[in-house]
Recover the amino acids of this structure.
C-alpha cells in the first residue's frame, strides 16, 4: 500500500487497518461502559434495544462512514467539505466532541493504570467502594467542590498521555498500526482468561441469567433506548470522526462492506463476550454475599469496574490477585488503542485544515487535551465526568449521527456512496441501505433526540443540581458548537479541497 493523497500516510496492510479499526471500536466502552449500562438498565432488558440499535444505526452508519472517508480521502471535516461543501461543519462537530471525550477517556485509563498497580497486592483493601471514592479519588461533596488534585492519578495520566502522544506522533503505519498489532491479540488472550474464569465461578449462572433474560416492560422507557443508541455509537466509534479518518488512509481497492461487517461483528462479539465474563463474576459476588445479582453493585454506574471487581478479586485470594492484574491490563490494552484513535481523528482534521505538520499538531493537541484532563483529576472529577459523558453521548453524538444521515440521505445522496463501496466490495449493499439512511435512521435518531432532550429538561439527570448540568453539560456543548463554527470559518490551504486522488475517476 503506497502513500497517496499528499503524503498523508496509509496503512501498511489490510490486517493492520482492520486491527486498528477494531482497536478503535473495542475499548473502555466494551469492558467498562457496556456492563454498567447493561446493569443500570436491568441486564437483559438492554439487549433488545441494543440489538435494534446495531442493526438500524450501527451497521448502516459504519458503512456510511467507511465509504465517506474512503471516497473523499480526508478527515471528517475535509470529507464533508469535499462531499457537500456547505456541510463541512458536520465533520467538525464530531471532531471536537472526540476531543472532549479524549479529555476524560484518558483519565479513566489512568485510573486503570493505578488499579493495575494496586491489583498485585490487592491494596484496595476490603471496602473497595470506600477505597475508590474516598482514598483514591478523594471525591468531594458535589460537582463544584474541587478539593485539590490526586497526585497518583496525575502521574498515571502523564504516562497515558505520553503513550497517546508518542504513538500518534509516529503516524499511521509507524505508530498506530504497530500499537494495535501488539495490543489487540494481547487483549483477546487477557479477556479470554477473565471470561473463562468468570463463567466457571460458583454462582456465575445467576449472573448469566440476569444477562440473558429480556425484560419486555423496559422497552417503553426512552432512557433505555437512548442509552442503547448512545452505547452503539460510542462502542463502534461512530459519529466521532474516527472511522472516517481511519478509512481515509485505505488504498484504492479495499473491500469496504466486508470490512465494515467485520468491524461490527468483532466489536459487538467482543462486547458480549466481555459481558459474559463480567456477569459471571457479578453472579459469583452475589453468591458470596447472598444477595440478588441486581443488588450486588449498589448504584453501579461509573464505578462498576473499579468498585465491584476489586471487591470480588479481594475475596478470591491468590487467584483473585492474578485475575485482577489481568483484568486491569485488559482495560488498559483496550483503552489505549481507542484513545489513540480519538487523538488521530482530532489531529488529522487540524493538520489538514491548518497545513501544519503532524508532529507539531499532535504535540500541541496532546498538551492542550492533557491539561484539560486535569479537571477530572480533582475531587469533583467523577461528578463532572459523569455529566459531560452523559451530555456528549446522549445528545451530541446521537445528534451528529442524525446530522450525518440527513446530509448523506438528502444532500450527498446515499446512492453516490453505495455505488462507490459496491464497486470495490465483494458483498453488495442493497437499496435497503438507502432507505435506512434516508428515512429510518433520521426518524428514529430524531425521535430519540427530541425525547431525551424533553426528558432532560423535565427530569434532569441523576439528581445533579441544574446549575451543574448547565455549566458542565450545556456549557461544554456550547463550547463545542463555538469551536465548530470557528474551525469551519477558517480557510483551507490552497487546492486541498479539490485536488485529491479521486479513486472513482480512473
Ligand atoms: N469505541 C471506543 C470504546 O468503546 O471504548 C470509544 C471510542 C473511541 C469512541 C474512539 C469514539 C472514538 F472515535
Amino acid at each position: 500500500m503506497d502513500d497517496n493523497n499528499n503524503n498523508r500516510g496509509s496503512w501498511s496492510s489490510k490486517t493492520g487497518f482492520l486491527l486498528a479499526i477494531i482497536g478503535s471500536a473495542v475499548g473502555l466502552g466494551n469492558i467498562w461502559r457496556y456492563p454498567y449500562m447493561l446493569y443500570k438498565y436491568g441486564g437483559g432488558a438492554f439487549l433488545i434495544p441494543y440489538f435494534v440499535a446495531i442493526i438500524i444505526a450501527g451497521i448502516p452508519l459504519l458503512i456510511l462512514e467507511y465509504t465517506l472517508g474512503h471516497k473523499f480521502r480526508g478527515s471528517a471535516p475535509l470529507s464533508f467539505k469535499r462531499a457537500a461543501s456547505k456541510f463541512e461543519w458536520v465533520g467538525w462537530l464530531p471532531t471536537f466532541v472526540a476531543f472532549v471525550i479524549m479529555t476524560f477517556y484518558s483519565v479513566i485509563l489512568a485510573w486503570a493504570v493505578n488499579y493495575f498497580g494496586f491489583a498485585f497486592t490487592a491494596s484496595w483493601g476490603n471496602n473497595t467502594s470506600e477505597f475508590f471514592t474516598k482514598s483514591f479519588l478523594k471525591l468531594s461533596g458535589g460537582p463544584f467542590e474541587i478539593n485539590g488534585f490526586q497526585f497518583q492519578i496525575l502521574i498515571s495520566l502523564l504516562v497515558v498521555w505520553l503513550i497517546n502522544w508518542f504513538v500518534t506522533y509516529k503516524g499511521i503505519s509507524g505508530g498506530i498500526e504497530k500499537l494495535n498489532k501488539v495490543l489487540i491479540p494481547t487483549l483477546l488472550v487477557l479477556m479470554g482468561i477473565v471470561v473463562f474464569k468468570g463463567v466457571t465461578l460458583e454462582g456465575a449462572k445467576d449472573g448469566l441469567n440476569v444477562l440473558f433474560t429480556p425484560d419486555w416492560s423496559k422497552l417503553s422507557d426512552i432512557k433505555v433506548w437512548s442509552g442503547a443508541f448512545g452505547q452503539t455509537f460510542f462502542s463502534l466509534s461512530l459519529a466521532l470522526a474516527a472511522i472516517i479518518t481511519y478509512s481515509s488512509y485505505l488504498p484504492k481497492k479495499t473491500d469496504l462492506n466486508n470490512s465494515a461487517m467485520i468491524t461490527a461483528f468483532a466489536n459487538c462479539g467482543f462486547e458480549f463476550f466481555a459481558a459474559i465474563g463480567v456477569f459471571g463474576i457479578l453472579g459469583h459476588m452475589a453468591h458470596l454475599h447472598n444477595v440478588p445479582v441486581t443488588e450486588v453493585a449498589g448504584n453501579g454506574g461509573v464505578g462498576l469496574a473499579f468498585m465491584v471487581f476489586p471487591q470480588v478479586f479481594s475475596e478470591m485470594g491468590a487467584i483473585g490477585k492474578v485475575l485482577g492484574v489481568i483484568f486491569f491490563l485488559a482495560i488498559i490494552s483496550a483503552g489505549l488503542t481507542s484513545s489513540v484513535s480519538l487523538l488521530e481523528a482530532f489531529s488529522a482534521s487540524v493538520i489538514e485544515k491548518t497545513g501544519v505538520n503532524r508532529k507539531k499538531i499532535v504535540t500541541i493537541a496532546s498538551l492542550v487535551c492533557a491539561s484539560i484532563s486535569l479537571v477530572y483529576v480533582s475531587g469533583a472529577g467523577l461528578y463532572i465526568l459523569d455529566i459531560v459523558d452523559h451530555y456528549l453521548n446522549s445528545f451530541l453524538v446521537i445528534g451528529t449521527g442524525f446530522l450525518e444521515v440527513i446530509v448523506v440521505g438528502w444532500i450527498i445522496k446515499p446512492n453516490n456512496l453505495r455505488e462507490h463501496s459496491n464497486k470495490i466490495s465483494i458483498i453488495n449493499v442493497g437499496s435497503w441501505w438507502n432507505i435506512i439512511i434516508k428515512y429510518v435512521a433520521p426518524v428514529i435518531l430524531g425521535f430519540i433526540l427530541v425525547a431525551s432532550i424533553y426528558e432532560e429538561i423535565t427530569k434532569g439527570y441523576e439528581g445533579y443540581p441544574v446549575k451543574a448540568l448547565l455549566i458542565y453539560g450545556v456549557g461544554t456543548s456550547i463550547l463545542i458548537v463555538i469551536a465548530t463554527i470557528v474551525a469551519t470559518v477558517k480557510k483551507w490551504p490552497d487546492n486541498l479541497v479539490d485536488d485529491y486522488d479521486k479513486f472513482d475517476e480512473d
In short: Residues 1-5 have pLDDT under 50 and may be disordered. Residues 24-25, 27-30, 98, 234-235, 237, 240, 242, 338, 341-342, 345 surround 4-fluoro-L-phenylalanine (CB under 6 Å). The longest helix spans residues 318-354. The chain is about 75% helix and 0% strand.
